[in-house]
Structures are given as structure tokens and as C-alpha cells.
Design a protein that fits this description.
The structure holds 2 protein chains of 2 kinds. By secondary structure, chain A is an all-beta fold. Chain A contains no helices and 11 strands. The mean pLDDT of chain A is 92. Classes of the chains: A mainly beta, B mainly beta.
Chain lengths: 117, 110
């Protein structure tokens, strides 16, 4: 099991540029989550998908942020245009199960550290 | 949504047992209690989960009293490598067990 794979590990970009973060969930997991972590706000849930369908994007800070999951093995988080305040570590997580009595834990990737100058 | 309260930070010497308590006064009947550990530059990692009484695995123990309004994560004989932030989450199998609080920053001292 390779775990959740995120790319790139680090991204440095200039304000106004488009940024795309990528995530490959664990095979067989049918829920995928995007989080953002900063010192000031901690870990924030941005959006999550069940069976490739976006369920709740209320955590997405602005229209500049968008996320897609075209298939069960790939998701992207895009920021366009990027701003310095978007600088953070972005984590992707996946888990098995979309409900029921079993409370499946989240499996996180190692994150993408984004710096917008 | 059950709110959790944990100490902001704790220090412990190597070899000691560490107990981190999480308060969740409005826990619901279907809610589980889940603990995660996060090292610097890594994503959170699942440690242990429980519903009631006591759960033990190779990493930690989780003690949950009968009223379930709190839980205690117990780390036996900590080492320097246990220095991390520990998060307590409470929720059911749906969408309300996805929210991380501020966590407890544990520092293990030689």
C-alpha cells in the first residue's frame, strides 16, 4: 500500500499564477478530502468527495479555489489566481466508506507546501 | 457537532507514561472518538479509535468513561520520537468526524 500520494511536495509561485495540486488516494478508498493547514487557522477542511462526487465544499475559501475528482484514483485542487495568503500546507486524505456504522479513519498524504510570493 | 477541548501543550520526560485528556460534553449516541498524531512536515496519522470503555493497540490505549463525555489517550513510556501534535476528533461515520481542533502539542524531553 503506497498510501495517499500528493504532488508536488513543494510549490513556490508568484501572486496571480495558477496553482494545481494533485492527489492519488489509496486504492479502494471511495472518499477523498482536501485540507489546508496554517499556523493561524490549524487544519481546515476545504472540500470532500464521496464516490468522486463533491459533497461539501463549504470550506473552500473563495471562488479562486476549485477541486475536481475525474475518477476514483485522482483529484486536483486548483487555485487561480493565487495570492500570498494562500500560502499553507495542503493535505489530501482518503478513507473507505461513505456512511453506515463503521467509522473509517482518514489516511493523509504528506502534503504540498505552497508558497505564494 | 460535538466540540472537543484538549490542553494546548504538554511536556514529559522520556520513559514516562503520558495521558492526554479530551473533553467532549455533547457527544452523541452514534459518535466515535478518534485520535490522530501529527509529526512536523507530515499529515496526521490515525492512532486509535473507540466507542466506550477501553481500547488498546500496539501504539496507545484509549480510556472512555461510562458517560463518554471525555476520553484519555495514554502513551506508555514515551520516547523523543513521540513528540508530535495529538488531535481528538468526535463524530459518527458521516461528515461530522472530519474537523480537527487545535490539538495537544506533546514535547518529550530527554
Amino acid at each position: 500500500d503506497a498510501g495517499v500520494i500528493q504532488s508536488p511536495r513543494h510549490e513556490v509561485t508568484e501572486m496571480g499564477q495558477e496553482v494545481t495540486l494533485r492527489c492519488k488516494p489509496i486504492s479502494g478508498h471511495n472518499s477523498l478530502f482536501w485540507y489546508r493547514q496554517t499556523m493561524m487557522r490549524g487544519l481546515e477542511l476545504l472540500i470532500y468527495f464521496n464516490n468522486n462526487v463533491p459533497i461539501d465544499d463549504s470550506g473552500m475559501p473563495e471562488d479562486r479555489f476549485s477541486a475536481k475528482m475525474p475518477n476514483a484514483s485522482f483529484s486536483t485542487l486548483k487555485i487561480q489566481p493565487s495570492e500570498p495568503r494562500d500560502s499553507a500546507v495542503y493535505f489530501c486524505a482518503s478513507r473507505y466508506g461513505t456512511g453506515g456504522s463503521y467509522n473509517s479513519p482518514l489516511h493523509f498524504g504528506n502534503g504540498t507546501r505552497l508558497t505564494v510570493t | 457537532l460535538a466540540k472537543t477541548t484538549q490542553p494546548i501543550s504538554m511536556d514529559s520526560y522520556e520513559g514516562q507514561e503520558v495521558n492526554i485528556t479530551c473533553s467532549h460534553n455533547n457527544i452523541a449516541t452514534n459518535d466515535y472518538i478518534t485520535w490522530y498524531q501529527q509529526f512536523p512536515s507530515q499529515g496526521p496519522r490515525f492512532i486509535i479509535q473507540g466507542y466506550k470503555t477501553k481500547v488498546t493497540n500496539e501504539v496507545a490505549s484509549l480510556f472512555i468513561p461510562a458517560d463518554r463525555k471525555s476520553s484519555t489517550l495514554s502513551l506508555p513510556r514515551v520516547s523523543l520520537s513521540d513528540t508530535a501534535v495529538y488531535y481528538c476528533l468526535v463524530g459518527d461515520s458521516g461528515a461530522n468526524n472530519l474537523f480537527f481542533g487545535t490539538g495537544t502539542r506533546l514535547t518529550v524531553i530527554p
